[in-house]
Write a structure and sequence with these properties.
Blueprint lengths: L1 E5 L4 E13 L10 E13 L6 E8 L10 H11 L11 H10 L5 H20 L5 E8 L3 E8 L2 H8 L13 H11 L13 E8 L2 E3 L20 E3 L6 H5 L3 E7 L7 H6 L6 H9 L5 E4 L2 H19 L6
Parallel strand pairs: 4-5, 4-7, 7-10, 10-11
Antiparallel strand pairs: 1-2, 2-3, 5-6, 8-9
Helix pairs in contact: 1-2, 3-4, 3-9
């Protein structure tokens, strides 16, 4: 057996030549005592990730991502400003957003930003300059903002992610609008064998709550139950169907709510909180649902999402 590595193609190849003689019961009838078998088998596999993959990150930056990053951060925020969220609208941003930050209080949005950039670091290491891993980044609340369209310039994506932060106006969480837009952006997926046949992934990172209070008051698309004013609910689990039907792998990270006492949670989230992980799991492709709460868990989960995508695109040995 001969094994070689081609540094140009990035492929391992193995050649197995076999030659065997087997005694045959009936060959003696024609003057043969043995039957000889000869052959050659070849297999190949990539060193690391050798498939083309496109990953579209969808980051939820709505108001609820302004909750304290940990129980301690939330408690400190409530004590300081009387609110569990880092209220960020321009009219009172200085008191309710800048002040907590000046005291070292971290918010969920900070964890999300850090974890997304670490995912890019992992992608840079995996890609190793081959240009086979491409990334795109979007953020959404009541609307979708493009941070970076799909590119091989992974460092540029990391730079753009540094701008991820809460909006400075009364927003909402219009997940249905975001996913419908993504369905028109990512319309197909290949097998990863060439740059024009990249395997496509959408990474949805969200707390899983649709909130239309500040986007016209339209009832969320999910079947309910609903929170106060009928404007909050767990996301509609069918939102990912178009993407999945087009062969796109949908990976979902549920950044689970840290439950806290107060009307904001009791009225707006609690009525359907048990539906959130179930709906998100139904939205995700099989084996691509992740859940995390703490900063370390969110970091680990985002890296696990990426590694799962790499595993799904890594060629296997083939004859």
């Amino acid at each position: 057996m001969k094994v070689d590595y081609n540094s140009t193609t990035g492929m391992w190849t193995s050649d197995l030549t076999y030659n065997a003689k087997l005694a045959a019961s009936f060959s003696g009838l024609v003057g043969l005592k043995d039957l000889e078998y000869k052959g050659k088998s070849q297999a190949s596999a990539a060193k690391g990730n050798n498939a083309y993959m496109d990953i579209y990150m969808m980051l939820d930056i709505s108001s609820s991502m302004g909750i304290g990053a940990t129980d301690a951060d939330t408690a400190a925020m409530v004590k300081l400003i009387g609110c569990a969220f880092g209220c960020h609208e321009t009219s009172y941003k200085k008191q309710y957003y800048d002040l907590p930050r000046s005291k070292g209080i971290r918010m969920r949005i900070d964890v999300l930003r850090d974890a997304a950039q670490k995912l890019v670091d992992s992608a840079i290491t995996t890609d190793a300059g081959t240009g086979k891993v491409r990334l795109a980044a979007y953020q959404f609340s009541d609307k979708v903002t493009t941070l970076q369209t799909i590119t091989t310039n992974l460092s540029a994506v990391k730079t753009k992610l540094a701008a991820v932060d809460l909006p400075t106006y009364e927003d909402g969480t219009y997940v249905s609008r975001a996913m419908k837009q993504m369905s028109t952006t990512v319309t197909s997926s290949g097998d990863g064998s060439a740059s024009n046949k990249a395997k496509s992934f959408v990474f949805l990172i969200t707390d899983g709550v649709e909130d239309t209070i500040y986007v016209g008051g339209a009832k969320p698309s999910a079947p309910g139950p609903y929170g106060a004013w009928g404007s909050t609910s767990a996301i509609d689990p069918t939102l990912c169907n178009t993407l999945k039907a087009n062969g796109v792998t949908v990976a979902v990270l549920y950044t689970a709510y840290i439950k806290f006492s107060g009307w904001q949670y009791d009225s707006l989230v609690k009525p359907f909180d048990t539906n959130i992980p179930n709906n998100l799991k139904a939205c995700a492709s099989t084996g691509f649902f992740f859940q995390a709460s703490s900063a370390s868990e969110i970091n680990a989960a985002m890296l696990a999402m990426f590694q799962s995508a790499v595993k799904a695109t890594t060629p296997r040995l083939t004859n």
